[in-house]
Amino acid sequence: MASDPPAKQLLHLVFGGELTTLDDLDFRDLSKLDIVGIYPNYATAYTAWKAKAQQTVDNAHMRYFIVHMHRLLDPDEQKRTGAR
């Protein structure tokens, strides 16, 4: 029985913090950023992002983001593979 090769890691960072205003992406206090984690694919990063976003739904200034680290590490990768 042949095994499938492991999926390529497409690293994603999930982090968040409180914004100074709803109109901009300036954080109120950079020392209080919440680094949720680094995930091997978009699906697991999205799950973590959604959980954190739901926990802070009562604070309109609190925002969480997903950063596609694999695009920063290899900017041409998306062009070659169409990876998300």
Describe what this molecule looks like in 3D.
This protein has 3 helices and 3 strands; from the N terminus they run ββαβαα. The chain is an alpha+beta fold. Helices cover 29% and strands 24% of the residues. A 3-stranded antiparallel sheet has the order 2-1-3. The mean pLDDT is 89. The radius of gyration is 16 Å and the shape is elongated.
Short description:
This protein is 29% helix and 24% strand.
Summarize the amount of helix as a percent range.
25-40%
Unreliable runs: none
How many angstroms does the end-to-end distance come to? 30 Å
What is the string of SSEs from the N terminus onward? EEHEHH
Rounded to an integer in angstroms, the radius of gyration calculated over CA atoms is 16 Å
Average pLDDT for all residues: 89
Tell me how many strands there are.
Answer: 3
Number of alpha- plus pi-helical segments: 3
Shape call: elongated
Strand percentage: 15-25%
Main sheet? 3 strands, antiparallel
Q: Tell me the strand order in the biggest sheet.
A: 2-1-3
**Helix and strand composition category:** alpha+beta
